[in-house]
Each structure stands twice: as structure tokens, then as C-alpha cells.
Amino acid sequence: MDGLDRFLHTFFNAEVAARYWPDIIAGMGVTAGVGILVSVTGLVLGLALAILRALQQPWLSLPIVAFVDIMRALPPLIVIIIFFFAFPLIGLSMSALTATWLSLSLVLAAYAEECIWGGMLSLPRGQWEAARSTGLTWWQTMTSVILPQAARIAVPPLTNRVIAISKNVALGSVVALSEVLNNAHSATSNAGNPTPLTMAAAAYLVIFIPVILAARRLESRWQWKV
Amino acid sequence: MSALPILELVGLHKAYGSLEVLRGIDLRVFPGEMVCVIGPSGSGKSSMLRCCNRLESFQSGQIMVGDADISRADVDINAVRQHIGMVFQQFNLYPHLTALGNVTLALRKVQGKTRAEADRLGMAALERVGLADKAQAHPAQLSGGQQQRVGIARAIVLQPKIILFDEPTSALDPETVGEVLKVMRQLRENGMTMLVVTHEMGFARAAADRVIFMDGGVIVEEGPPAEVFGAPKHDRTRAFLARYTGGHE
Questions:
Q1: Whole-structure pTM over 0.90, yes or no?
Q2: Close Cβ partners of A69 (under 8 Å, ≥ 6 residues apart)
Q3: Confidence band (pLDDT; 50, 70, 90) for B246?
Q4: A17 vs A20: CA distance, rounded Å
Q5: Which of A129, A134, A147 should be substituted to probe chain B, the one whose Cβ sees the most B Cβ atoms within 10 Å?
Q6: Looking at the predicted complex, does its ipTM rise above 0.90?
Q7: How confident is the model at residue A91 (pLDDT cuts 50, 70, 90)?
Q8: I need a labelling partner for B240 at 20 to 30 A (CA). Which of A94, A145, B19, B68 fits?
Q9: Nearest CA to B39 among B223, B208, B216?
């Protein structure tokens, strides 16, 4: 066997691929599903935290800032491990899926809060004053004037965060979540051949290239009309 | 001129910490009047204006808008604000909405009007400021003067009892100041009541019914423009006007 054949036999082995593709597909489903769940929960929670922080009540802002700073400082891997291995000791057991979903959602929420809050802060005070001077309530001003503008500013950093956090679903493998990378890794060990890892790489491309294209579309669509 | 003022300030005091910016303001604005407030920077004229719709709080004194006492804690301030339009130095248009969207937002959100009804009223307001053809333009596509006229349309569409103008032409290029002042003159001819903080001395002299000169947080002098500009009684007024007009006349 020459070099190219050895390379193809090792990383693109049809026989191994045929045997393990159902595991990879199942893993893709888990990765995509958890990724979507995490994105929705994290963005909704982050938005809610940013709105609460905009109320400018110290008893709300201080815990939010503490939460956000801690979640951004900790590696997501550690958060997952704490939820899965430490929380059962205080009577809070959860499945690998729940632990992964919850951990990554909280981490995304922290980043999303910062992105959206930053967007709100960058708006001139006059936006609030103009809306309030016409009789809009705080909430109406928030939903009709502030959030639409803050969201536009926050979209590019948010899409990056959503993509990054969705790829972190792979961290669920430490608590035996059957996501695509974990399944590929097991298959690689069983087969004694890394072709399943190649398949996992392809699976990531299949999942994330459309997400990245959609994000780019969203970003350009939300540009200011000038 | 009717006997009942539309806006009445009694003994208004305001301080930022230990810095007193308003030290007892008494002022009445009557229906159909255009009152111009002049004075040096830091004299408290913008603070006074912004107290009138409670964009800023004040420590003591009373402000009546019609029969609503907005100094009371239990007043429905959002309801009263419908009757007090405000036009800002920096326009403060909503950049994500069209000109028409800017003008109709409060009609739809606060007054609960349908989009069709709000659009009809909004177009009429844009017509009055001469910008009906720019209804679908976003603020970034408009000149400063056009943006400020949209700002005025946003105020008049709610049919307020009075409009507060906070240095409406100070952020404008000299060549677009005129179009905004022209719209303000038209409003006055149509009987709109206006309280205008301005540095446009020529406009105040020509268009105001009454001129207020403020300095150091108090009203130093007030009267018809011919008197305040032509024969000021106070040294401080004279000094201010000399400084202001000295370069130009």
C-alpha cells in the first residue's frame, strides 16, 4: 500500500463507515437538538436578564452582573461537571442531557446578556426621552424603541456566540451524552480506525455550515437602511 | 388671550446634589402664546423645560399642565405627556423606523389607533411640516433640518396643548435653520402654544410673544421682545445681549 491508499484506508474507510453511520446520524440528532435547545433557552434568558438589568435597580443588577461575570469566567466544561457530578450530592440529580443543556444555556445567557445590554447602552439617552415624552411607558419604550435597535447591534456577536456554544455540545461527552463526537470517539475505539472521526467532522459541517450561512444572511438583512 | 394658563410653574426648585440649577421659577404660558427662553449656558433654561414634562425631577414647587398637577406623585404622567409635545436639540428620531413610523408610534402604542388611522393622521402631520414625500425615508436619509421637522411632526400629531422646544436649531447647519424656524412660525400662526429655549436671538425677537431671560437659575427679566431686546432693564440682560449680538451687529 502506498501513502495515499494508507491515508484513505485509515480516514475514509468505507467498510468502517458502513458499520458506524447509524451511530453518527443518531449523534447528529442529539448535537443539533441540544444545540437548538441551548440557543433558544440561552437567548431568551439572556434577553430577560438584559431587560431586568435595564430597570437599573441595584438589587437586580448586582446579582445579574455577578452571574454574568462568573459564567463568562468559568470554562463550560467545569459547569457541566458541577451540574452532573456535584449537584446530585445536594439532592439534584439530572441526566447528561439536562446537565449539558442547562450548563450551556446559562453560559450562553451570560454572553447574550452582555451583548444585548451593550447594545442598549450604546443607544443615546435621547431615544428613551423621545419615546417617554410622547407618553410611551417604560415597557413600550423598551419593546418598540430600545430592543429593536439593541438587537440589531447585538446580532453579529450573538450569532458568533450561538455557533460557539452549539459546538460546545461536544463537551457533553464528559458526562456520556451520546452526541456526535462522543459516538464517533466510541466507534473509533471499537473499530480501531479513525474513520468515524472523519464522519463526525463531516457531520459538523452539515450541521453548522447552514447555521453560519443563515447567520450571515441575518446580519446583512439587519444592517441599517441608509 | 384667555385667563387660564396652559402651563404654570410656581416656585420651581431643582438641584443636582448641592448644585442648585433652578432657584424658584414662576412662569405662566397662555394659550396661543410663543414664549422664548434665552440665557447663557448653564442658566437652567433647558432644565426648566425638561421639568415641564418630568423628563427631569425637581425638589420643590408646582407645575400645572392644564388642570393636571404633574408635581404630584400619583399623576398619570404618561397620560399628561400626550398633551405636552417635545422637540429635542438632537432630534432623537428612532433610526429603525421610517419618518411615518416615527410620527405614528405613539398613536399606535399609546392611543391604540389602527395602523390605517395612525398613518392617515401621521401623513397629515408630515404634510404640515412639508415632508409628506419623505414619509417612507429613514432618518439617516434625511438632512438635519428635515429630521427636526419630522421631530416636530412627531410632537404635533398627538395634538398637544403645548410644545416644548429644547434648542431646536442648535444642532443644525446654518442653511437648514430657516426651514425649521419657518415651520415653527406656521405653528404659531395656527395657534399652537409653544415654550422655546433658543439661541436664535433674531427669531426670538421677531416671532416671540414674550421673551424670558434666565441666568443663574432664576428668571431675571421678561417681557415683549421689543422691550427685552430694545430696552433691557437689568444689567445682566444687557451684558448677555451685548455679548450675543456684539459679534454680529
A1: no
A2: A110
A3: low
A4: 5
A5: A134
A6: yes
A7: confident
A8: B19
A9: B216
